[in-house]
Amino acid sequence: MHGSMDLGNDFRFASYYGDHMVLQRAPERAVVWGYATVGAKVELSLSGPKYNLVNSIHVISGVWTVSLEPVPAGGPYNLTAVQRGSTISEIVLTDILFGDVWLCGGQSNMAFTLAQVYNASEELAMASSFPDVRIFQAALEQSTVELNDLAGVEVPWSRPNPELLGGKDFTHFSAVCWLFGRYLYETMKFPIGLVESCWNGTPIEAWSSPRVLHKCGLQTSGDSHLWDNQWTNGVLWNAMIHPFLKMTIKGVIWYQGEANTLYNQAKYSCTFPALIDDWREMFHAGSEGQTAQVFPFGFVQLCTYKKTSQDGFPEIRWHQTADYGFVPNERMEKTFMAVAMDLPDETSPWGSIHPRDKQDVAYRLVLGARAVAYGEKNVSFQGPFPQHTLIIKTFVNITFDQNITASLSNDTFEICCSQEKKLCTAGSKWLPAPMHEWGTNYVLVSIAKCPVDYVAAVRYAWSDWPCAFKACAIYTADGVLPAPLFLLNRWPENSLQRVYNNI
Fold first, then answer.
1. What's phi and psi for 341, nearest 5 deg?
2. Of 125-134, 149-158, 301-310, 485-494, which gets the smallest average pLDDT?
3. 137 near 105, Cβ under 8 Å?
4. Kindly report the CA angle at 424 between 422 and 426, in degrees rounded to 5?
């Protein structure tokens, strides 16, 4: 297959269309494409409860593409393709639903299957009760050139069942992807299509096009081996994302970053936002303008790995927000984030880097999707973030943008004590700053160990493993969502350095 156009008499749909699939609902048009004999004509007809649509298209270079009329959520439909040429061929795809299609990408915490989570047997037993949440999974493939179609399919479009969702560890199907789709369905009550394309242990550069790499000052040639020489720049973009560009999607969820904690870590504040921009541009263009130009993009902020410092986890968490600390923001519009640093799992059979609680991760992602992707006004989806800071004698008063609930901690807050009036970084000298008290929307943090004039910055939860399970220092007033880590500088490097208020 490998994107080849010389397919002779091979009449078929592209690899990611089939029985049981979900196509993007109105107002967008679903794009459907496939292969046929050069010079032939293809007729496509959709028949079902509300619509009977017929399209006639010419085959160009062995490929046909159709943008269907917008179809509201629902089904089931049949999609029939007929090739008319020297012979007549017909393909019928059955049990097709229209709903929202979400692409799930990333590395091993996205690949982590439902059979590996807490309460796995209970989750698996429920799977078949959600026949309107459909799943598809791309096979693990690499390519040095951009492919037009997938080189392989791991799970064709399927109704969910315990076998597909409970496959071998890290193979199929993604727990975060499935739970996100299931929770979303329970709220939205219309079909959800889940397309998984992820690979364990992969750095972001493997998922990045040459445009992203170039923008962030990285090599775009195929010779630049990554990380432990296992990955080459762009090979997964080429084989596992580029083929999907013609498909109309609602949005993307993403769980990746562990592989960049010690590899091109400082570049991640460029590569991740640039990847989002690039995927948006390319999906919009590839789907003939049907996938939104700025489609919603949700991601999981890294969870925990080791109870040590200097391993890059807090830095990647920060860079995942383009160094703002929260999303959406000016650099990352229409994005949403699930904070996960308060969901550690020291005894995970798959190592502490692979925590088993994917239910809370998916739940937090769905809150973000409801607010950002679906525009629900009264959904709380962000943890507290500092709005104002003020030094009062030997304390820093940090006021948050919403009411909080807190538990006093001696070391979750730190201050940068510096005689030089310059930007503090992760490598600066940081001292623990014990929490003294907290109120409706503020905390008082002690700076007694540092002269007032030398207090250059304050940061929160800046460690790989900042707290025990659901026991970080600051949460929303209802105790549901944790505050993300943050770093506020008193003396910004320049006017572009973002702080809410100088300390």
1. -70, -10
2. 485-494
3. no
4. 155
